[in-house]
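Dear support,

I submitted the protein below through the web form. The confirmation email said the job was done, but the results page showed an empty box. After a refresh the structure appeared. I'm attaching both so you can tell me whether what I see now is the final result or a partial one.
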Amino acid sequence: MKRTMYLFCIAAVLISIFLFTGTSSAEKGGTYDWAGFYIGVNIGGGSIDVKQKNTANGTLWGDMLPGESFHKKTGGLIGGGQFGFNLQVKQFVFGAEVTTDGANLKTNNLSTFGAADDVFKTRINFLMSATARAGFALDKFLFYGKGGYAGALASMSVEDTTPRNTGKGRAKPWLSGWTAGVGAEYAITKHLIAGIEYNYIDFAKTSVNYGDTTGDYSFDAKIRNFHQGLIKIIYKFDW
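What the results page shows now:
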């Protein structure tokens, strides 16, 4: 994860230098118009903190008991696309945006309770957000904040393969929550825009059950401290 974030920071710095030195400027002829529909791609990285707290254990193989918990931090790559529109009133820009991304954020955690042989795995496969944006334009530069709904598809599992008692379970919950972020964009040409963006995401607690025929193995799961950094390339339409 550290390597991913280092690469993102280096890329963000290089893009910032490129934008602010104006090595590729937008077409001349007046103040840039940010109004219109747009579509684009993004790539970056993120980090998450996964916490699970046991609420019930009626299985023969589960290690954890109600009240016991664990958490694990991890990170990985994120990439996908976005589309939206902007309205401009003088220097103020308002809009809405939908972002969809694939992700490779996963954790492996070995329980420290009981026989300490339960292997918990969590993976975020897909992310989406629907947000409102508000910003301030300085000709070809746009600085904005955003906020709204965030959702994710998670794949969560536990497995005990050590005899005498063995078992496994899996859940694929949809996580819902909110996101807030800030970003900056620069109009390279009339239609081509580059940007960088940071988002914080918080998902509500969800209940998962890994139990089998012997009983429930239930947890309250929480994805927290979700930090996301993206580099964006955007094409803006005239309409």
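Response: this is the final, complete result; the empty box was a page-load delay. The first strand starts at residue 36 and ends at 57.
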